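From the methods appendix. Each design record in this collection lists the tokenized structure first, followed by the designed amino acid sequence. Records were kept in a plain field format so they could be parsed without special tools. The example shown here is representative of the layout used throughout.

RECORD:
FOLD TOKENS (504 positions):
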């Protein structure tokens, strides 16, 4: 009886496994436990796929037998393609190609914009370097878009979906960069321009040379004007907003000079009064925050001069973000020499949100002032918490215009020529998200930072680091011991029953 019972139970388990495997071939599904749902297609992606009129053909050029630290990318990509295929009603077709099998396929991949990268591998106890392909070609109706390299940790869904949108988009929405009055030019924002150019047509717009801003601009961008703005220019912006237009404004009322250690208020160019007319107050103070970036200073140690990293509260670092579509997925932003914003209007029809705020340990200092790099900051220096550095306004005017104001004009300004510098990607992502949200066209704002995380250990105290470190080491061992103890207790109870003649 025992043998027959064991045989029946074993057969049932095998039958269940077989049925589950057969069902998995036709009913593909995954359960996503990640914080940002990185393995679940976003609403924007699903909408784009469901509305496809053309068949999207995807060729993934991937070298076989990649090292373990890269091999998982292909599996994740295949799973994601299956999700795209299931959502597209048959309009998404993909295949994987190994270009290393022939020179013809290598040539085909490179002609399609997929270039190989050099990867170190160990074979037969010898370190070798191979040329590996890890790129994607997306095609539709004679148009093509290449992702030359799929990098670990990249926002893959955003890249794939925007590529699909780009090749199926008939006319790109137009965005204007206001360049009058010595404002920032296109050449000073290459990182922001590169992100926005994927989905938008970016053009320079001189307010003084134009009679009006036409409604065919999805959004206007105004960054760091530094000359007096004529009232006629403000009238043009007001009319554009009244017609339902959208404006992204990045401007600070104060400026800091690290060479002279001065902080001072900028000359009045009219923006402060214009913002006041919209119900926004921009202060003449500089915001300081204990949660901040560091600067390198030279300190003398005896006969030597050492470079040291010193925390600099004039460079607020935002790590805790308000819940808003613009801030989805952001990890860390740095806004040097920012002034505080406040809403002072009484119009209850407006929807106003503080988008960026400093930490609980923050405050303000009056200007003009001098920065003391060697200052030992104490808790009493930070007496004004949660300073607003960016806010959004909706339902402006009869046609529901919108505006995002950031009290810093340098956080997305790369500079030009020899002064150009690479900026923190989350600074660029924030501005791109804000412009996407204002333009309200692509719906991809939530995908740009999906799956991309940057959580430096420097922001975690030593006690938490030790807890995580030793918890990872000892928790599996502890769980095994607990299971063993429970299992042993169960067996002992059964044996005791058997000794007493109880075989139930």
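DESIGN:
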């Amino acid at each position: 009886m025992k043998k027959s019972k064991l045989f029946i139970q074993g057969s049932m388990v095998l039958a269940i496994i077989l049925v589950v495997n057969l069902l998995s071939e036709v009913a593909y599904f995954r359960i996503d436990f990640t914080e940002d749902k990185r393995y679940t297609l976003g609403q924007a992606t699903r909408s784009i796929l469901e509305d496809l009129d053309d068949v999207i053909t995807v060729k993934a050029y991937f070298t076989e037998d990649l090292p373990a630290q890269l091999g998982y990318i292909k599996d994740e990509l295949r799973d994601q393609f299956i999700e795209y295929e299931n959502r597209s009603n048959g309009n998404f077709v993909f295949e994987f190609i190994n270009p290393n099998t022939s020179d013809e396929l290598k040539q085909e991949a490179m002609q399609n914009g997929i270039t190989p990268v050099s990867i170190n591998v160990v074979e037969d106890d010898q370190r070798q370097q191979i040329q590996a392909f890890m790129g994607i070609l997306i095609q539709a109706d004679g148009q093509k878009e290449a992702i030359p390299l799929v990098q670990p940790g990249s926002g893959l869904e955003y890249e794939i979906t925007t590529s699909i949108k780009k090749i199926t988009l008939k006319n790109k929405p137009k965005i204007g960069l206001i360049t009058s009055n010595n404002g920032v030019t296109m050449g000073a924002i290459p990182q922001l321009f590169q992100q926005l150019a994927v989905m938008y047509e970016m053009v320079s717009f001189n307010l003084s040379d134009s009679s009006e801003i036409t409604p065919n601009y999805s959004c206007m961008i105004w960054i760091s004007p530094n000359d007096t703005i004529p009232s006629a220019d403000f009238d043009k912006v007001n009319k554009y907003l009244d017609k339902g237009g959208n404006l992204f404004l990045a401007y600070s009322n104060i400026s800091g000079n690290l060479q002279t250690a001065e902080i001072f208020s900028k000359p009045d160019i009219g923006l402060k009064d214009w913002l006041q007319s919209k119900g926004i107050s921009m202060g003449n103070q500089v915001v300081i925050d204990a949660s901040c970036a560091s600067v390198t200073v030279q300190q003398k140690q005896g006969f030597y001069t050492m470079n040291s990293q010193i925390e600099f509260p004039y460079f607020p670092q935002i790590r805790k973000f308000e819940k808003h579509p613009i801030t989805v997925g952001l990890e860390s932003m740095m806004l040097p020499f920012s002034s505080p914003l406040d809403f002072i209007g009484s119009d209850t029809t407006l929807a106003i949100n503080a988008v960026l705020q400093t930490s609980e340990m923050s405050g303000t200092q009056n200007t003009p002032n001098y920065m003391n790099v060697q200052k030992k900051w104490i808790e009493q220096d930070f007496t004004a918490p949660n300073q607003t550095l960016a806010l959004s306004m909706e339902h402006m005017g009869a046609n529901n215009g919108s505006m995002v104001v950031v009290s810093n004009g340098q956080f997305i300004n790369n500079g030009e020529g020899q002064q150009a510098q690479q900026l923190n990607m989350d600074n660029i992502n924030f501005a791109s998200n804000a412009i996407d949200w204002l333009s309200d066209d692509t719906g991809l704002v939530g995908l740009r930072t999906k799956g991309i995380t940057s959580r430096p250990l420097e922001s975690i105290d030593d006690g938490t680091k030790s807890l995580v470190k030793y918890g990872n080491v000892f928790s599996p061992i502890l769980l095994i011991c607990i299971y063993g103890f429970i299992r042993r207790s169960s067996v002992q109870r059964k044996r005791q029953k058997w000794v007493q003649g109880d075989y139930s």
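APPENDIX NOTE: The longest strand covers residues 304-318.
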